[in-house]
Amino acid sequence: MNEEQRKQQAQIIPIDNNIERIKNTSSDEMISKYFQTSYEPQSPDIKKARKRRNEDVQIHYDFAIPEDVATIGKGKKFLIRTYGCQMNEHDTEVMAGILTEMGYEPTSDTNDADIILLNTCAIRENAENKVFGEIGHLKPLKLEKPDLIIGVCGCMSQEESVVDRILKKHQHIDLIFGTHNIHRLPQLVKEALFGKEMIVEVWSKEGDVIENLPKVRKGKIKAWVNIMYGCDKFCTYCIVPMTRGKERSRRPQDIIQEVRHLVAQGYQEVTLLGQNVNAYGKDFEDIEYGLGDLMNAIHKIDIPRVRFTTSHPRDFDDRLIEVLAQGGNLLDHIHLPVQSGSSEILKKMNRKYTREDYLELVRKIRKAIPNVTLTTDIIVGFPNETEEQFEETMTLMEEVGFEAAYTYIYSPREGTPAARKKDDVPESVKKQRLYRLNELVNKQSAESMKTYKGKTVKVLVEGESKKDPDVLAGYTEKNKLVNFKGPRSSIGKIVEVEITEAKTWSLDGVMVENTVEVN
Ligand code: SAM
Ligand code: SF4
């Protein structure tokens, strides 16, 4: 990316004397300046979604740490606290990679850190509250260590109201940057260090694709691989299309190269990541290439396990089902968020499928992959959800036979259409519904676990169990957690384990001797 493009897109507003400036400027004035060229954080709407598809996405292969900051972190330490989804976890790996290339070393001790980044999540209100709690906790440390750099990044920093609140109430924050600005971390750290000013950089453009970013991955066994960014679905409850920008896919060759590189490093499993991976390739103008084609290409690569998340039912096409049915390294576990079992609620959510459409998709998937395990996400207490509509979610849960589900109470997000709706469902009723749903989820999970008793499963061994270092832990192909006694030498390998005990959310077992399958 050249300097001219940077100038056009970036918005760095250095504040010489932050407190003085805040005193002298009305907050509305300040906020409108910060966001004057940024993506308007207003209500998402479908017309805008269609329009933004036509915008140019540029792919940049020229990422490099500028020479003047290449050793800026020598002898210093960084800590990144991550909130939210896998996308954020992976962004943290990228930021860790950039900081490491700048000479910083990681630490898990806040007192030891020279730079602390909070990589935030905006999906529900309680996620945001946690971050504001942590911002408050860090204030005494900043007062004690004025040279400490504290940054807020991730989804919350894309929200105008959040930046407003930090500017007004948390002036000990040095740096705020958006999800499209991660690759600018070297320059931003430099600005924060030498200027000692509050830096706010939230880009107007909804994001390009930046390749060749360094990464420090969390482990050596499983790896995340982004295949696309952003979301154009505009579900009426969801903030993601605003915090992550428009859908844009990485080129297939760049993804395949990354997976090959991971194989060479000995990784055993990759999870292809995106907010809506089934829309992969829809933004390509020069080639017809979708998720099915990509999975087919990765199927041929010598990596034992391939997963993908998250799938939107609407774009789950026949080609993908046909490819997944080949099995091999394409695992027979599909996470397929349904959100609600009521067609009326699904319509209000703008999910663009009905209960019947979803069941038809499940039927097709089961026909092609008879052993498939399905898991899902469900929101209860969407505005004005009736008892009958909630019951439809309960019956769908049973009808599909989901083996696990992430369940949430609807959380209104400012700027989304659903948040403007009047809601006649009391919070106590929503909590009761969540409780009832969770009882059912637990029951179905426990039932599915019981079917494993006495069977032998393949487990990718990840390490020692958190509770007992003599016990190893790993996951089956269907993503079931297994705890078992076995040699430490099996860590990082796929072994066979005979299941002796089934619990609600995990299995216990014994390793079958001499079964190490992959070295
Ligand atoms: N793209 C995925 C999809 O369409 O299913 C989901 C991504 S979102 C990060 C993860 C989950 O958070 C969603 O599936 C939904 O269940 C939940 N979620 C999103 N917005 C929410 C809200 N406002 N209140 C409660 N749960 C929400
Ligand atoms: Fe949010 Fe997923 Fe809907 Fe996109 S598809 S708006 S990420 S829930």
From TrEMBL:
Name under which the protein is recorded: tRNA-2-methylthio-N(6)-dimethylallyladenosine synthase
Binding site for [4Fe-4S] cluster 2: C231, C235, C238
PROSITE patterns, per database record: MTTASE_N, MTTASE_RADICAL, RADICAL_SAM, TRAM
Predominant location: cytoplasm
EC number: 2.8.4.3
Quaternary structure note: Monomer.
Cell location: Cytoplasm
Cofactor binding, per record: Binds 2 [4Fe-4S] clusters. One cluster is coordinated with 3 cysteines and an exchangeable S-adenosyl-L-methionine.
